[in-house]
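Dear U.,

For the methods section draft, I wanted the exact inputs and outputs in one place so we can describe them consistently. I've listed the two proteins in the order they'll appear in the manuscript figures. Please don't edit the token lines directly; just add comments below if something needs changing.

First protein:
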Amino acid sequence: MATLRLLNQLIGLYIREVKNTYKNPAIIALSVIQPLLWIVFFGSSFSYAPKSFLESFFHTDNYIAFLLSGQLSASMLFVGMFSSLSMIQDKKSGYLRRIMVTPIRNYIIFLAKVLGASTRGMLQVPIVFLSVMLFGVAIPEPFGLTAFIVALFLLSIGLSSIYLLITMKSSDWQIPTVISNFINLPLMFSSTALFPKENFPPWMQIISDMNPVSYSSTFGREIIISGNSISANWVYFFYLFIFALVMIIIGMFAATKTLKIE
């Protein structure tokens, strides 16, 4: 009965998070437009590059196919920022205080925030995939496509957990923005989201090898370029699973100890 009660609490708070997304169409539009703009403008920068150069440097003659998984992975960085903004908004409005005086556990609040933000991040994926078909990118077979979407969801869970961990004690709207500027760009440019790591300097390759955005980008890229999951390195997928699991556990523990009624 206790487990069922906790599950019902989680579902209730999760549904609220999802509903809040649909109440603001601007958030949905921006979450879709942002990766599309990157793919269209940045991806088109190599449109007239010689195919021999593209194949030797990116291992495909279509840079947008190379960029697709990387940009979707990098966009999960901003999903994490939205999760922390949601927490601060609930503090400012007094909603978090009202929830915390009920029997709901702190870690349930944390889980609902993470899952809600991750779901919000997934809204862009089908629209982006359909859009890039106009640029000659083929949709992978269903199992491979599903595996990549799950990998993105795991990445989003891990990154959202990190953001919530950092901003859990804050009520300042500026904190998530400052953290975003400090973390997101280094993580994106030190990953394989935009370019292969073989051309990075040695110190940057070390960072790339520890960067979860690299694992999601490379895993999805192998599926998209080959068209199936057979060519994908599933070690990347399991790394993302462990990353998400560890960050969720740490975040749940921190929420239990840190979240207080203000």
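Second protein (the one for the lower panel):
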Amino acid sequence: MPKILSHLQLWEDSSPRTPAGQMACDEALLHFCEMPVLRVYRWTAPAVTFGYAQRLAAVESLARRLPLMRRWSGGGMVFHGSDVTLALAIPASEAAASGSSRDIYSAIHEGLLSAIQKYLPDSRLVLPEECRCGPVCFESPVAFDIIAGASKICGGALRRSKAGVLYQGSLHLPGAVPAEIANSLAAEVSRFEKATALQASIDKLASSKYETPAWLAMR
């Protein structure tokens, strides 16, 4: 099966960040990158991210008093802590960014599935008739999410802009190897070198947007 990307830079980001810093980093990466970049990271403490369109009051009632942060992408609530979190930034200049959101999402997860099946051979994509509506991402599989048995193990959401496409995903696979994830998405993978200019953009986005009460409570 052809891979969604011909080339990709992998960023294994071990920097400790607040929830606001994590989301700012993902968004800044899309605006900064000149070629596709996959950022793979973990959380220093449990937190919940929730979709751009979700209402704060509804999310707060389910969040178990954990720190909350609204994502730039859509989707439902995600409880972070034990997961491997993925941010794939695809610039608008890439052919992969020009497809429909459904096609991009399914292509990303078809690629990820090839890596996951090395660990969980019974894992597969969710069928349309298996979808369930609900506010919590991992309790509400949508088409092309990844399940193993009865458990959803990978879900994500997209954000499209003039800069391209940002995929934000959560993977529950303790033994996941970032290089294997990257190689499942691209024919050629190289290492991403973070520039000082990117960190400046992250800091600016965090302070001007994600750390503000207005962003959290916009809906």
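Candidate sentences for the figure legend, describing the second protein: The mean pLDDT is 92. The CA atoms of residues 208 and 214 lie 10 Å apart.

Thanks,
Y.
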